[in-house]
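step: validate -> pass
step: tokenize input -> pass
step: predict -> running
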Amino acid sequence: MIYFIGPQLAMESSDIEYCTEQNAYDYLKTKRVMQVDTETTGLSFVDDTLLTIQVGTSEHQFVFDVRHKPTLPLVTLLLQSRASKKILHNVSFDYKFLKAYGITLANVHDTMIVEKALTNGKDTTRGFFSLAGLLDRYLNYQMDKTQQTTFIDHEGEFTTQQIVYAAKDVEYLQSLRDFQLKDADAQGLEQCIKLENAAVLAFSDIEYNGMLVNVDRWREIAAEKLESANKLEAALNQIILDDPTFSEFKPSAFQTDIFAPVEVARLASIDVNWSSPHQTTKIIQKILPELESSDTKILAAKYKKHHPLIELFIEFKEKYKKATAFGPNWLDKYVDSDGKVHTSFTQIIRTGRVSSSKPNMQQIPADNDYRNCFIAPEGWSYVSSDFSSQELCIIAHASNDPVWLDALKQGQDLHSVCADLVYGQEWVDAAEDDCPYMKNKSKCECPGHKKLRTAVKGINFGLAYGMGPHKLSDTLDIPVEEAQELIDKYFKVFPSIKHFLDKNGNFGKKNGFIRTLAPYNRVRKFPLWAGKATEPRDMGAIDRMSRNTPIQGAAGDMTKEAMVRIRQLIFDKRDEIQLVMAVHDQLDFIVRDDLIDKWSPVITEQMELAGRTIVTSGLLKSDTTTCKVWEK
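step: predict -> pass
step: emit ->
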């Protein structure tokens, strides 16, 4: 039965009855599981309005019109209770509107997030994770979505059809959850599902809290980057004028200006769009005829020193990209009416990591020019904590390699220790007088050591991304054969790491999926896998992904665990501390200045406890810092 709670008088359906908030509360307070949804006037919790809250069971659904009361205290009590499980589809959307209304959720099951975890890696079609898609697959129920858009900018009384539609959104959620839990049990994903359901609220908190932006400083930086790009463009044009190699790109004639010197007019006559791959490839082919692309990644890896134009071009592209991608248009697009940026997270990508969009906060330039434009409110500061050498610690733990474990435990420079063992006498001979590494195995600045360390560091970090000889060749600018020899030599020195990676690769190729490390055991499925009939090229990709996913996934899992642990402690402390960002292995909070000493140790402790869920030895440490602005 559908019950409506609100001042509306006319009701044209016998399927809907009026109800008081107290009557609804008396029924729902006894339920250990409730199904929840909302209807809103739009998609923005900052600018749009919450219209209704639907709470119910499979038998009875209650539609609360929340426009006519500042608060509905009994509804708030129901939803904020940690004792009852709340089932929603796409928690993040509803939660942010509820939070703006004054309701903070706990103990949820998100049927959308759970479905993504259960099918992770599987190729899906549009609408696969929608509520309608799930109801069709699991319950063979075709959901009528025709009323969905009628709530946009809605005013006045609700139609019977709108109320029925709102109620139907919560009628079947528990049935969906029951099917999903059976699937999770069959796949051994109980811990993974538990983690994701808790993490969705932490990610939603970040989206809701947002980050204040110093708009004026951002515009200044954008102007500076554009000015730098323009100067580099002029320098590139000057090379076209001066170097006969590029004579075909010079104009045969140019128009002079009585108010400008001839050289200025000649420079202005160069008609090259340095942002056009088509034009720049033709120019760079005058230096490197075999090159098929002007991709700066390729140029930077192998050809940077071949000609001054190439080095200038790489720098121009970097400056121009920043000037355009992070210019005034970025502010117009992403800074909301409250002066904040509210990113959106995709909580599960195939490795188990997360991504963000609108805007992508992982793509904010790593230098602090732009990051420092994200500021704390007056009287607050940023407190940021990140895992030290997260992926390296995961590899050391999972492979149980004695050298890695000892180096990390002793605080030695792991990359130098590895280079020492890989290169042997060559490393010893490269040591300068008073080399810090030779004294206590700390990082040194010896030129010879730096070159060898960089090569081994490329392998160490490349292990976490399934890197092969071709990628190492590009990274180090060495022949593929030399890269393969270096990898072979490396694995002779570290056989336990080779065994760990080979075991993962072979498991994925044999079974068509791979898991992250215990206790979460996240599954990544490989759609390309067809048993022994798998194409060799596809099997190679599966091998790389199987080596990479357990490391990347474990890193993502422990970061989510840290978010969950800290959220439980700051659940009702919004006036003291707020979680505002998560980028890879770093969590960022804003904390009241007078409470930094209280919360900083708590954050560090919880980060390290989260690390111990996977790296059980406690090897993984957290570094926590304080600043008035967001920084790397």
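step: describe -> The CA atoms of residues 222 and 326 lie 7 Å apart.
step: cleanup -> pass
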